[in-house]
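Sample A.
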Amino acid sequence: MKIITRARLTGLAGAATAVVLAATSFPAPAYAAETPATLAEKAAALRALGLEPTAVRTGYKDCDLTIEIWNALAGQQFRGEVRTAAVTAYTDPASLAGDAGKCTLFIRTDVFAAKQRDVAIQIAAEEQDRIERELKQKAALTIGLTITTDDLGLTVKNFVDLIRKSDKAGTRVKAGAQTAYDASAAEQMTFLGDGIVTAHEADREEQIRIEAGENEALRLKLIEEAARKRALAVLLVAATDGMLAASDRDFITYIWENAEEGTTVRGAAERAVLSREPADWNDYIHTGIHEAREADRQLALRKKYEADVAKADAVLAEATAAGQHILAVAARKALAGSATELDQFLRVGQFDLDLVTGFETGEVPLNWSHTPAWSDAIQGVNACPIADTQSHATKVASTTAAVATAAASVRSAEAALAAIPASSTAARAAAAAKVAATKAQLATAEKNKAAAVAAQAACAAKKPENSVVNNERAHTGTSAIRYYGVDQSTSRSHAYFNAINLTRITVKPTTKLTYWVYPESNSWINHVVAANSTCVAVDLLFSNGSTLRDSGAVDQKGNRAHPSFQCGKLTPETWNKVEVNLGAHFNGQAITTLRIAYDQYPNTGSYRGYFDDISITD
């Protein structure tokens, strides 16, 4: 594991490898006035996480302690939210610029809220584990398969495989298990619930027909035994010989006494026991208990769905308030989906997000437009066309020369005036008029120069662009990011813009970045240089302070994922797909920021184009 220190983070913040720093246009953060955390607050945060509050740890500065917590919890189960909150705090632009306010808030309050989220995740995981274990037990009881504790610990898919290979499984159960094994996790759960029961009933009917033959009494006996075994499976109880031999009323009494209080299964059992009609007892054993179980299941599902909607609404509200657009979009999608999709989002999806956006309405938008990624992220680039730059330079030079000429004329006229004797009144009056005229000409020349200098400065001050536009050009839909700038430098020049704030995206071995880019030539704007337009790429910032551009990672064509290494590798006037495998370089790292970047060495001139359909997926 690579240990992250503040020194490492700040070391990565320089020059071309700088991490996000606050742009001068950023408003002052609300936490800037936070006083540093006290020793007691640091100790409380550490104890809450089960970490020893040693003198070394409590002696750390706030951001150093935040990084220490992030490192100390690496590899621990159910600590993802705390680690995500820590990353958010210590990679905040203000934190990297030296303002520890966000780290202080993490230690003082955010760590406790994040811990509660981790506890909620753990509870949900344990509940899911309980549900899966019950399904496994019921499935095993259904077919009479004896299982061990280790068997219950198998994944759902591997447990389905265990059933598929069991000699207790009949032909239909094996076929159903095979189909489920090759299907989705949700379909595997369905098989362990109702699917195996239906398949086993069909297998059992055939088995009874074969075993009983023409013996009707034996056939009825086997049917009753099968019905009782299935009824007891609802309680996750294996049938004993005594239970199979008990009277219907005694059998139902056992279910009544052992069913969970308040359930429909128990209530229906009580009504059946109190009935004097044998038909009611038989109906309960064969069908009533299963109808009651289904009623309980549907009620539980309704309650869970209502609770899940409330939880997802809270996630959406919090994400929206925090500007976490990826999480907000995922929450809205889950709320609009099925109960299964909502459950998946709350249990897993919200903590392990993907980025998929074409910048259409309802999709992940930009967090920033035209915002430099750090203080000197734009070098040698503006939005003043080269021809205009040259024209302004020529104008400034000519007006400067005109000022010099006019100033010389003033000096000459003044010298001529000084040489005329005071007694020559008429001559001196003419010379004085000449001085006045040359001074007026100098004032005009100076005014013209000032105007030329101001126009030159205004053009030079025009900033390169990075924003979403509609109905211009798009790979899909109608929206895309448009980039535009003018390279003014014959040496190194670059423009890096923050675009999307990323949260809860952790790189796995299979994670890849994909995007489409359309470099323009002069077809839209005549001063755009096609070669310049290809010197662009999507850049990423990671939780350890490293960047995609400096990682050595390559795209699907073997070109480095650095904007200057994309120069000439992209085809102008068409959509180019770029795909980068992130897992080889960043496995386990969280991605914190997505940037749009232009970078190249010697060439000058305008560049322009579009990015669309950006995704980070596994």
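Sample B, a different protein:
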Amino acid sequence: MISEEVKEDLREFPGKAKNSNQQLAGLETYSGAWTKTQAAHLVRRTHLGLKINNLNYARSFNNATDAVNALVDNAIATPLPDDPQWFSNSNSGDVQDVYDIQFRWMDAMYNGGLRERMKLFWSNHFAVSYSNMNALPEKASNSYASHMYKYWKLLHEYSFGNFKEFVSQMSKNSAMVYYLNNYNNREGQPNEDFARELMELFTLGPKDKNGNDNYSENDVAEVARAVTGWRVNDATLSGYFDESRFDSSSKTIFGVASNYDLDSVIDLIFSMKEQEVAYFISRKLYVFFVSAKPNEAVISELADYCIDQNFEIGEVLKKLLSSAHFYEENFYGCRIKSPTEIFISYLRELEITPTTQLKEYIRLRMQGLNEELLRPETVFGWAGYNPPYSDGTPGHYSWLNTNLMPSRWDNLTDIIYGYDNSGNRYEPIRLAEKISDPSNPFALAEDLAEHLLAPPLNTVGVRKIDEDFAGNPALHPSTNVAGFNSFPEYKINLAKILLGTIPWYEFTANSDQDGNLFYQETFSEAIRQYISYLQQLPAYQLI
């Protein structure tokens, strides 16, 4: 759980979500200004980090609805990735091939957008781990890496499709059949693991929105009998139904008796418990995309829309992401970043290409930060992505404590300095010329901060620098920089932090003989130190 000290640091931002019951806009279409601010919020929430080309693409539209429709439609059209050679050659039980899936996913997150964020959402919702709890290597030692790859492809294929069909397909996926022990569930020897999670984690949740039980322990036992008969073929990497192991007797579920099997149980859940399913998945989508503190009125409205759209997730996302509620200013920078978001966002924001060496560095560090891709903590996924705990504590607080926060700082500093076998030292000139005037330290300091920090800059607690600017007093910026006297205080302090002992009038980018800009090392180092300062602000932990 997050420490009180860290929690207090993160609690101070006006940009954080306020009381979830306050009067906010609903799901009506957002019709306000469509500027860099709103577009950046959309990109941060639909991608992993604010990459310049994604921001420019979002800004190319005239309004939020058009931008959202394009992002979702483009994500839906993203083709399945090519299979790796090791998967095509033969089945694998080599953990290095699991790492290869992780590396492929990091590349996809860096280069892609909403499709990869949705895969992250579903990998938490339909949690399967290649190791730890219910470890797959013990169940399929010669093929578990291949089973994990098919699971990962299924996340890609159904991310925006029909939720009911996704539940059905995932229930039969070989990795899931293994992970939740449904391959051990047979007539006369029921195993309730999958039956319980089908209702508790995949479709209903234990309680409805009014606090009533969504199912009973008897329902769990009866569903377990209904989903008997499923096994795994390791050669074909598929789940299959073995009728000889199926309990064909009558079962009573939600008070209705029939000879249920897996498909008819899912049909029953989505027919008898339609409202509960819609509310459950809408609440998880809300917490993942909007705020860790659920707004029950908006979630109920979204659930109704989900039913109207027959559980087509792409349409539900379009509604949520183009709503006036999504663009409420107090949602900008209101959720704590996960380790995946911290690392991939940092690379995308600074436009650092993830080499194999860097991806291995990140893979190892993510283990220490409690989120390794394809290795969720438990069957519940990662608490940081989930709705609040039963006591109301937002789940995203689980990402940080007084040990994990400094580890994040150190890891990001390693990346820009190439420490600890992470790669090469970062050169900032290409980013500087994309987002600002690279020879104007006042503009550059503000633009870099705006690029890296999600909350408004006047809320992030920029350190006050009492010392004056270095250099000749006769060339003080107050009399030599246009508009200086109207700069907000945070902009002046940011420029001082960037410059340090460098006179403002000496800070410049140079051109080589081919016209390419470059910084002298003194200026590059000043920017690296400035980025290190920004990423240690509590605001950088927020998205």
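Observation for Sample B: The mean pLDDT is 95.
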